[in-house]
């Protein structure tokens, strides 16, 4: 795909939804009013499934430090190369492809080995820890992650951590054991760690503080804390990676956290295909959407856009190394 085909204000060609196959007119036999209502519903559904238009390119390239290229949104099947070409065209030079289980972690390693614009992170997602433990497979899965983490193109262990939103109290012990094991892998392998922290701020911090050793670089992926957690991160030198959620009007806690976060500890991500930034919330996300979030951050902080881009890019290199 040629970069010249990515036009700001238009959905990139690789991300355009295919037309649905022809079918019988489902409005046949309906009243005009019902047919109009049905057509409006279908238009809204299709609109929600459409990828947003490409943004204006960033003045200084900034990588996406957390994405899921293997997660397909709706009917779109975009190749890794096309996704990266599209991102490159708007100033996103590379991505950290993140695994959530053994299969997706293998995909991350393979993608990073095949394309120099991709780095990999590997892990068992916290919500998978309890089911795996119950089935007797958690130790084997973590051992596989340990082996994958030895690859040179793997620069982080993650996403690992604690999720109390989707996993009940009965699964918290398995999550914690998995989190601690992943931290140990990151230390031994000399990798950063990407933390998934949902409704578990206190316990995540507790695990980090209790660990005998921590990786040199600790990243709170999709940072969801408030100013209090931001201060804790500042004090400990932990990185805060902001996703599209920071652009939401009701994200007042995130806005406060961003305002006081040490600029040298701030990163940016998409977590694509999820968490699409305003004004496209609810539609599928992709690495090419990073500029929307970065521009919001610059406006919120009252900083020059190019200056902020340079800081974000430098922070990303410091955590993950060169692509």
UniProtKB/TrEMBL annotation:
Protein's UniProt keywords contain Metal-binding: yes
Keyword set includes Oxidoreductase: no
InterPro entries per the UniProt record, alphabetical: Metal_Hydrolase (IPR032466), TatD-like (IPR001130), TatD/YcfH-like (IPR015991)
Amino acid composition bias (Basic and acidic residues), ranges on this chain: 34-43
UniProt binding sites for a divalent metal cation 2: 196, 221
Binding site for a divalent metal cation 1: 66, 68, 159, 271
UniProtKB keywords: Hydrolase, Metal-binding
Positions of region (Disordered): 1-62
GO molecular-function terms, A-Z: DNA nuclease activity; hydrolase activity, acting on ester bonds; metal ion binding
Comp. bias regions, Pro residues: 52-62
Listed Pfam families: TatD_DNase (PF01026)
One GO CC term on file: cytosol
PANTHER family listed in its UniProt record: D-AMINOACYL-TRNA DEACYLASE (PTHR46124)
Name by which UniProt lists this protein: TatD DNase family protein
